[in-house]
Amino acid sequence: MTHVSRWILYPFLFVSGLLVICVTMVAIVLILTYPNLPSLEILTDYRPKIPLRVYTADNHLIGEFGEEKRELVQFPDVPDVLKHAILAAEDERFYQHGGIDALGITRAAISNFLGGGRRQGASTITQQVAKNFFLSSEKTYTRKIYEALLAFKIEHNLTKDQIFELYINQIYLGQRAYGFGAAAQIYFGKQLKEISIAEAAMLAGLPKAPSAFNPVVNPKRAGLRQQYVLRRMRELGFITPEQHESALKQPLVVKRETNDYAVHAEYVAEMARQIAAESFPADVYSRGLKIYTTVIKNDQEAAYRSVRRNAFDYDRRHGYRGAEAYVDLSDIKSEHDEALDVLLQDYDDNDDLHPAIVLDATPKQVRAYRRGGELITIGDSGLKFAARMIDEKSPPNKRIRRGAVIRVQKDDKNNWRIAQMPEIESAFISTDPQTGAIRALVGGFDFGRNKFNHATQAWRQPGSSFKPFIYSGALEKGFSPASIVNDEPISIPASVTGSQTWEPKNYDGKYEGPMRIRTALTKSKNMVSIRLLQASGVHFIQDYVTRFGFEAEKHPAYLTMALGAGSVTPWQMVAAYSVFANGGFRIQPYIVSQIRDDKDQVIAEAHPISAGDESLRAIDARNAYLMDSMLRDVTISGTAARAGATLKRRDLAGKTGTTNEHVDAWFCGYQRTVVGCSWIGFDQPKNMGKGETGGSAALPAWIGYMDKVLKDVPQTFMPQPEGLAALDVETPKGPAREWFYFENVPPVVEPEPPLDPDAKPVD
To answer: Are 56 and 298 in contact (CB under 8 A)?
Structure first.
C-alpha cells in the first residue's frame, strides 16, 4: 500500500466508522425509545378543555367561564383561506413531508448560518402538535429528538387532515384563546367561516409568537407579520396578486374588549355559573357544559339600556362631582404621543362611558385624548353638566384642567359630552307571570364595578310598593274597593308600640278625610293603609303575605308593615306581583331552563308548574281581579300615571314605593304577559335627594323596558271571574261601577265624600 493510498484510506475508514457508530447509536435510541413514546390516545380521542358557556333562551352567548377560551371546529368546517394562510405561515410542505421537513431544516440551517442574527425554526405542524400535547417548551436536544420521534409516530397513525385539525383546535393564540375558532371570535367577533383573507393572515401569524404579534397589544408588529403571511400566500399561489393587494388595503377592526358578548347579561351569567358549579362541581369549567337561561336577548338589552339611562338621568339631576383623577403630562411630547395610552391603562371603558385625558380646557371648549389616539372636542351643550368645574373658581382637586381624567359619552345626537360614573345603584327584573321564567335581570349599574346582585341579594324596605299586599289581605277580611276609610292623622300611644308614641304622616303631609280604598291606593295614602292593617289584624296580614312568597320574619307584626317597613328583594317582589298578574297563582321564578353536556345531551332541566294549576293558587281569583282593577288605576290617574300616559295603554298595573328619607325608590308593575320590578338606591343607604320618589326615580326604568317589550303586544285585560257583583257607587266624579264579593255585597253603598281638588298623588 502506497503512502498516498494510506492518506486516502485511513480518513475514509475513520469517517465510515464514525458513521456506522452514529447509525448504530441512532438505531439503538430508536429501538429503546420508540416503543416507550407516549400513547396517542390523547390525540385519537381528543377531548380538549371546553369552557362552561351560558346562553340566552334564544341562543345568544352571554358568558364563558374557564381557563381556556376554545371553540372546537371540525376540519371540513375550516375555510380554505385559513388553511392556506396557516400553511403559508407555518409549514408549506405539510402535505409532502412525513413529519420532519428535511428540506425546511436545510433551508433554515443555511439561513441561520448566513444570517448570523435572528434564527429561523423549522418545526412542522406535526412537530408542533407533538410539542403542544406531549412536551414542554424547553429548548434541548433531548426534547427535539423526542419531538421528531413523536412526529413520525403521529404521521404513521393519523391522517394529515386529522393532524391539521388537532393543530387548528389546540394551538395557543393569545388573549386566552386556544384554537383558531376561539381566536376568530376574540379578535374579530366572527365565526371562523366568516373571516376574510386579511383576517385569516393575521390569525395565521399568531402561532409563531402570540404575545409579540397580538393585534390588541402590538398592532404594528401584528401588521408586519400579517403582511409577511399575505406575501407567502401570494408566492405559493394560494391567492392572486389582486387578492393580495386588496387584503393589504383592508382595514382590520380588532375587538379590544375580550368580554364583549352580544348581550349585556353579566349578572345572569354569574347566577348560571353558580348553579352549574353547585350541581356539577367536577370539571365544571372544562367539560364543555352549556347552560341555557330563560332570559330573552331583546328583553335583556331593553332592561340593561333602560337601567343605565335611568341611572345617568338621576346622576345628571344631582350635578357633576369633578374630575375622576389627574395624570402628569410633563413628559408628553405631542397630542398623538402613545404614552397617553399608557396613562389611561388604569381606567377602563364602561360600555359607552369612556375615560379621556384633558389636553386643554376653557369654559367654551374642552379638548381631550381618548384611548387609541382619538382627539375629541367638547363644546356647547356637552359642557353644561360640568360647567361649574371648568371655572377657575372651582376646587383645584376637582377642576377640569389639563391632565384631568374625565368620562365622555355620546349624546342622542352623537355629539360628545362630559359625563361621570354614577354612584347610585339600581336593579331591574322581569318575569313571565304564567311560568316564572325570568325574561330579564340587571343586578346593578355595572357588573365590573360591583358584582353584588341587587336583584337577588339586596334586602331593602319596599315602602308603598308593599301596600297592595295589605289591601289584598283586607279584601279577604270583608273590605271592598268601595269601602270608605278615613285619611286622617293617627297616633299610636307608647303603651301599644312599647317604646314611644308613633305618629306617621302621609308623604305630602296632606289629609283628605274619608275616601274609597280604591282612591287611597291610587294616591298611596299612608293613613288608609295603616287603618286597613289595623282592622285586618297585623298577625293575619303577616301570615297572609307569605302566600305571595314573602318571609314572615322579614315583616314583623307591627303597624309599620303597612308602610313597607319590612325587607324584600326585587326577586321576591316580581314573584309577588305575578300573583296579581296571573289571576291569583303563586309561581316560582327561575333563570336556568336547561344544562347540556359537550355532546348536547340534556343533563338537567327545569320543570316549572304554570299558573292555572289550582295547586298553586295563592289568593282568590276575585281578589286578584279587584287588585288588578285598583292597580290599573294607579297607572292611569295615580302615582304612576306617567306610565299610562307615556306608553298609551290602559292595561298596565302597578305601584310606586318610596321609603323614609328617600332611601329606596321602587316601581313594581305588570301587563298581563310580563311583570317587571325596578329599584334604585345607594349600597350604603342614604337620602337620594328631595323629590326622588318611586314615580320619578324608579318608574322611568320600568317604562323604558316596557316600551320595548310591549311594542307589538295588544292590550289585554283580566277576564272577570265568577262570584262578583257589580254596583254603581257615587264618587266625586260621578257614578262609577264597583265590584263586590257576592257574600259581601252591602245593602247600601256609602258614597265617597268630595276630595281635596288640590291634592295630587306624589309617592
So the answer is: no
